[in-house]
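Revision sheet: structure tokens.
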Amino acid sequence: MAGGPVCSPYALAAALRALDRNPARIAAADWPSDFTDINQAGLYSWWVDISGGEHLSDGLGLPLAAGRIYAGQTGATMWPSGTPSGMSLDQRVDGLHLSGKIRGSTFRLSLASILAEPLGLEVVGETKLAAASEETLSHWMTAHLAVAIFPFDDRDSLEDLETKVLGTLDPPFNLDKMAKTPVRTRLSSLRRQLAHPETVAAAPALPTTGPKRPSAVKASVQTEAITLHFEMAEILRERDNAWMSSKDLAALVNTRGRYIKKHGSSPTVSDWQIRARARKYPQLFERDGSRVRLRDS
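Predicted:
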């Protein structure tokens, strides 16, 4: 966490019950069903059924059991600046995950990266699917996913609560602040392929046992370096694509420490570098003075 107050032990225990130990899950197709408080900030967890887990295993080339695969928050105050966020659970779960586009949802992007080949999704640009493929992905999600929520009105400590929940639950598709695993390594590589379809990064070798993934796009680049604009986009997706100042973005890039140049160095990023990179990729980012967010189209 990059600042802000910490959550209470009671809030953590309640969140773990709601999201994992005794979750009130509803099918994605039935959202919001009889859930209340969906207009609040809070946390959520996504669950996949047996057949959906088999599809994801095929796309990953690694075994993945049915169950909880991802958790996140929406509406947290953005630190270190203390900028408030007005996003709600309904806006996040429905507006961005179920009905949005992969450019605006880190969870949706992960699913698209894994299911691109099994579902025949058409990639038409950097982190961009054809409209019909976005619809195909949404149909798959409503057919195979369920969601649990934990409304939480203390937006200032919500980011800390999310960090502690993820540290306990260790969902396989969460990447930020999580330890490396074979699934996360594979998923990160597939996401970079979707983000840079013109120069596909080589995926790590698959194990000789377990389900075998059919050959995908041929690899042409042997680097696993994470570019600055890729990391900026990841941060914006994880924060509901709200406007962020270049100073806040730079602070989070440096805190996460994932941006690595091709020659292996991990530089300290300044706010002017964030603004320069946003100007360099106008097809990906839009700007408002010193503020940046992802472009929707």
